[in-house]
Specification:
Blueprint: H1 2-45, H2 47-62, H3 69-116, H4 120-129, H5 134-144, H6 149-155, H7 157-165, H8 175-186, H9 191-201, H10 204-214
């Protein structure tokens, strides 16, 4: 019986991994298609490409494990200052939207997912947190932390999530959309502080590009 449960758990983990890989590949294909279409239509349609590309970028950025980097770079390259500003606010909207979606899903959804994977202890722990205020959830998470480093990461969670958004290769831990979704589901982030954290965390690259774009070119 134990071997059967382990086999079922392994199969379900395989299904989850395959699903994540499929989402990532499908997102990459969708991004490539949008980038190609934007390049084709940029001259005849002009600003409509900016709005359409921005909409696709927000949608892809908000989804877990789906990349959106190529669209953002192309928008900034094609439209300069206007594209940089649009990508910055589009990123903020996408990450805040993912957070709100996760907050709406609640801990019960995450607990059900863990239960489906036969991770009973984790599922029961999350169910015990449902309906509790954020401070109580935070206290219980810290009490259950397995290592010394985890309490520090949780205690300074806004700094942690800001670093996670800028972590190279963060697509492997869900990408910006997945990180934001998990933050919302955790119930330990207050939205005003989260929104401010996102605004600051995503600012360095757009601000740098904006400064470079506004600098006067070399005199001829």
């Amino acid at each position: 019986m134990t071997h059967l449960i382990r086999l079922r758990r392994c199969l379900r983990v395989f299904v989850v991994v395959a699903l994540v890989a499929g989402i990532y590949l499908a997102g990459g294909m969708a991004q490539g298609w949008v980038v190609g279409l934007m390049r084709t239509l940029q001259d005849p349609l002009g600003r409509m490409v900016l709005y359409g590309g921005l909409f696709c970028y927000i949608l892809l950025m908000a989804l877990p494990f789906v990349p959106g980097l190529e669209i953002s770079l192309l928008l900034m390259f094609l439209f300069g200052v206007e594209g940089i500003v649009a990508v910055y606010f589009g990123t903020w909207v996408a990450l805040c939207g993912s957070y709100l979606a996760g907050h709406w899903l609640s801990l019960r959804t995450m607990a059900a997912a863990l239960g489906w994977l036969h991770l009973t202890r984790g599922s029961e722990f999350l169910l015990s947190l449902e309906g509790k205020p954020p401070d109580e959830i935070l206290r219980r998470v810290l009490a259950r932390a397995p290592t010394r480093g985890v309490p520090w990461l949780v205690r300074y969670r806004y700094l942690t999530i800001a670093c996670a958004f800028n972590l190279p290769g963060n697509a492997f831990i869900g990408g910006g959309g997945g990180i934001a979704l998990a933050a919302g589901m955790s119930q330990v982030f207050r939205f005003p502080l989260y929104a401010l954290t996102v605004a600051l965390a995503i600012a360095p690259v757009p601000v740098t590009l904006l400064v470079l774009a506004l600098l006067p070119g070399p005199a001829s």
